What does this fold into?
Amino acid sequence: ARSSLARVPSASAPGMAYAAAAASGAGGARPGPGPNQPDVIKAVRHYVDKMIPAKGRTGGVEGMKVLLLDNETKGMVSMAIGMAEILEREVFFVGTIDRERDAMPHMKAIVFCRANSANLRLLADELKTPKHSQYHIFLSNIAPPSFLDQLAKADVHSRVEQVREYYADYSAVAPELFSLNLRSASLMCKPAAGPYGSLTMEEATFQRSLDGVMSVLLAHKLRPAIRFQGTSPLAGHFARAVDSSIGSQRELFGLMPHSSPSPLLLVLDRKEDPVTPLLTQWTYQAMVHETIGLWSNKVDLPPSTSGAAGQKVVLDPVHDDFFAEHMYSHFTVFAEAVQARLKEYEAKHKTTGSISSIEDMRRALERLPALRRARDNVSKHVAIMSELDRRVRNHKLFELTVLEQDLAEQDALSRHFEEVSALIADPAVRAFDALRLVMIFALRYEVDGSRQVSELKVALASRGIEHGSVALVDALLEYAGVRARGGDLFSKKSVIARVRRGVSRSLKGIDSAITNHKPLLSDILADLASGRLSTTLYPAAGKAEGAGPAGTVIIFVVGGVTCEEAAAVHKFNTTPGATMRVILGGTSLHNSASFIADVEAFSKAGAAGLGTPGPAAGAAASTDRASAGISIDVGTLGFGSGGVAPRGGSSYGTLS
It folds into this structure.
């Protein structure tokens, strides 16, 4: 067989080629120059450019070709490059390897997929009866030797020209944010729920998370010191698994240049801060995700906003400069920016409309494509803003937020009990929002207000919320209550923490009523930047301590991250004089509904306990997330209003 394996890190730093033989050949590649700052979108984009370079650039597969993806990589690619741009690169057809298609023997095939057993079977079937003249296979992560051996044996017609590892095994949501789009990551800390191929469900989720983190490290050429949240057995197990995997891949990590200050991987556990994913959000990206739903950077606008049939729109910083500028802006700031952009478009449109000569007509025609794009972009954001405003007014989200923020920041048991009870009884407040409020209340007053928590659960039931949904309050306390957490989430234990929070509130003033809350991650970032992050609370996995100030920091949250935390990271990265660059990632990108669905999956998995958190570190087995995903239905709360991803399979978007 002529297949060979080349291992190619991204171009985020001056690169070296990593090559390993597979079958009877060996190949290598040297990445080109890249940006100085780590950027997960640019890293994925770099690999796409190498597979299908832009017109006029050298390298890649020349001539007309087809691009074949799997159900995961199609989402990863679509978040880095649009379909129109792909088609401009002499790509005649884009499809997935699991779908039937006509033979095109005159065209070459570029395949970008995960190195898992399902894709191996599909590739083997494809190579037995090839539909294309050549196959250039790019794998999104480290390929087990057995995968390459079986692929070489399947290539009976010698159509495979090359096999390369391009480490883009994650969804790049923003330059400093990535997600693995895994549902029910909480199952990693429960006993296995049942068999899944050669792995249990729990092991499959764990291994997929390990694959994703290894991919990010390799894409950015980072061999980091590793630290983890010491109060979480799961975070510790995962951190040690990453350390073991790095040690087993000396060919890839052993030659990486040492940098000063050294990079750091910090592994956290979602259950240490269960309040942040339950709060109503007011920055643009977070508000869209919480209120409507943002999956693979795509938003499904309802018919009331976008017309009779509804509309799917793209909201991502790659294809939308306006969104890139305002994704972390407060809703009122964003609304003012939309209004200014609308006035700017109207002014340009009036200028174009004044035509008194042939030259005016020529200039107007030249401006039409740009004006049409500007119109479509403005219309999209106006439609989203309109829908957000409607939901804020109809569902009393402002009143809810004021109480949520107060619950998260202050102790006032009697007053909070009365205010939560009043909102539960208000018919304008959705049942789902009432449940969220009770969950936040239960987390705050689990110890001091158990009687009030019980009364609020009765109030939820009296409102008509079914027993299974009310029981999620207790499930949350089991998953992330005081006995499951190790830290001081509400600053009740530490006098210094209480004083610091009080000073912070007094400085912010009244305008902070809906944005007063600060995620736990913000304090961790401050301690990291100053080199004061406790080595007792956040010990090292492996030999490197990583106790001092770090350069590049990858923070990975087992159990998922939130848009509020992403905004905190962005604010930290853009602070003048910052010397530390942070990339945030997680098993998923949560809104409140997906987090509660995760809690329900945890509850259904059985009695609490760590069990066996995953396969042996560095194990070659891997799974297809779309197959491993669980469809969650949380009672009758109507999550379709903008919480969980569509049921029936993957939450990834399509190339559009």
About this structure: The longest strand covers residues 160-166. Confidence is low (pLDDT under 50) at residues 11-35, 191-198, 493-511, 607-656.
